[in-house]
Amino acid sequence: MGPAYRAELAFAQEEQGTKLVNTLTYTSLAHRDMVAATGMAEGMEMSFQSLDQLLAEAQG
Description:
It contains two helices and two strands, in the order ββαα. By secondary structure, it is of the alpha+beta class. The chain has one domain (5-59). A two-stranded antiparallel ribbon has the order 1-2. The longest helix is centred in the last third of the chain and has 20 residues, at 40-59.
């Protein structure tokens, strides 16, 4: 397991829906760069797109 990091999720109600801000704070720039190089950001984006689609289908 790698170095620790802090994850914060903030939800805010907006006119067109709910806004989610996901903030990850790493112990160092090197750790951040290492994680970024793994493709984690792209994987998270794919997950959020899947969630968007699921929610849209659920709303009909």
